[in-house]
Write a structure and sequence with these properties.
Layout: E1 8-13, H1 19-25, E2 31-32, E3 43-49, E4 64-67, H2 73-76, E5 86-87, H3 92-110, H4 113-121, E6 137-141, H5 145-156, E7 160-165, E8 174-178, H6 179-188, E9 192-195, H7 209-213, E10 224-228, H8 237-245, E11 249-254, E12 274-276, H9 286-301
Parallel strand pairs: 1-2, 1-3, 3-4, 4-5, 6-7, 6-9, 7-8, 9-10, 10-11, 11-12
Helix pairs in contact: 1-9, 3-5
Bound molecules: NADPH dihydro-nicotinamide-adenine-dinucleotide phosphate (NDP) and oxalic acid.
């Protein structure tokens, strides 16, 4: 039964089905999908994915905003966002989904999945050369919650791993680089590039032709590979196509795109060297994410600090 004495939750989502979130949240608290009026004082928390612009600024007693995703670019674009804490998702379930996705895509590129699928279509019985994982360096842009877990999984599979972050980070068995000054060295030592960055003013469009050109292309590996599971606007779709056409890139796995859903007219859909998934690398599953969200609200009301807070200045 919802507790009527606790602060109400406003649920505002676009591009995601709010129903399962509504059902689970409303088992503990009253949930509304529209404020009662411009100054609805009953709402203490907002649970959002791409909330309607200017909606949150009109809630006088809003205490915190909860993102249903790990990324918060969808929240921060609101120019009238009120100055309350923003909590993002950090959860084993989501992290495991992303690690699965990264390992799946890296192993598929490494073991030449695209070539085998093309051969099978033509009933070709031909064995391409196999190389050890230890001969391949996977570079992860974004060595945060998701990047570090992916790095551990890749190390366990025997790959060499590089990581790039904004501030200096360290991780056992990972060669780490940071900041603009570390970017070229990181790229020059990377055969397969994984992008797990947040979208901020500093990272927008970072995955462009000039960056892809700096990846390592060694004889025997057949070319560099890009895997982007961060955000679509980190990349320039046209630059990726250009890089694939001129051999700068051998293959790409893309989960995110400049425009989502990926327009049916995009040449990425039919490109033989591109593997497309619909922003589903790590889906936010309310069954796993709502209980800790409600627990945080209750703990906050007991005076405990909120966890997994967004640093608005850094934008993630
Ligand atoms: P974190 O905040 O834990 O980590 C972000 C990492 O990116 C940190 O290492 C940070 O550096 C680094 N970073 C940020 N800005 C820069 C910069 N300007 N230059 C270099 N490095 C930078 O985020 P998560 O790992 O939890 O999530 C990463 C992103 O993954 C999310 O923001 C979201 O966009 C995306 N995502 C995509 C999903 C999908 O299904 N496709 C699902 C979930 C998330 P530092 O360590 O120095 O802070
Ligand atoms: C996220 C996402 O940010 O699903 O969690 O993209």
């Amino acid at each position: 039964m919802p507790d009527h004495d606790n602060g109400r939750i406003l649920l505002s989502m676009s591009g995601l089905n709010p129903r399962p979130w509504y059902e689970l949240l409303s088992q503990a608290r009253e949930v509304v999908t529209e404020p009662a009026g411009a100054n609805d004082p009953s709402i203490a928390y907002a649970v959002v994915w791409k909330q309607k612009p200017n909606l949150l600024s009109k809630l006088p007693n809003l205490r915190a905003i909860f993102s249903v995703g790990a990324g918060v670019d969808h929240i921060l674009t609101d120019p009238t966002l009120p100055d309350v804490p923003i909590v993002r998702i950090v959860a084993d379930n989501l992290t495991q989904h992303m690690t699965d996705y990264v390992l799946w895509r890296v192993l598929d590129h490494h073991r030449q999945g695209m070539l085998y699928r093309a051969q099978q279509k033509r009933k070709v019985w031909r064995e391409p050369p196999q190389r050890p994982a230890s001969d391949v360096s996977v570079g992860i842009m974004g060595l945060g919650e998701l990047g570090r877990a992916a790095a551990s999984g890749l190390l366990a599979c025997g790959f060499r791993v590089n990581g790039w972050s904004r501030t200096e980070q360290s991780m056992q068995d990972v060669a780490t680089f940071h900041g603009e000054n570390g970017l070229t060295s990181f790229l020059n030592a990377t055969d397969i590039l994984i992008v797990l960055l947040p979208l901020t003013p500093q990272t927008t469009g970072i995955v462009n032709y000039g960056l892809l050109k700096q990846l390592r292309r060694r004889n025997g590996l057949g070319g560099a590979v890009l895997i982007n599971a961060g955000r679509g606007r980190l990349q320039k779709d046209a630059d990726i196509l250009r890089a694939l056409e001129d051999g700068t890139l051998k293959e790409a796995s893309l989960d995110v795109f400049e425009v989502e859903p990926l327009p049916r007219t995009s040449p990425l859909w039919n490109h033989p060297a591109v593997f497309v998934t619909p922003h589903s690398a790590a889906t936010s599953d309310p069954a796993f994410l709502v209980p800790p969200m409600l627990a945080q609200m209750a703990a906050f009301e007991r005076g405990e600090a909120l966890r997994n807070l967004v640093d608005r200045k850094s934008g993630y």
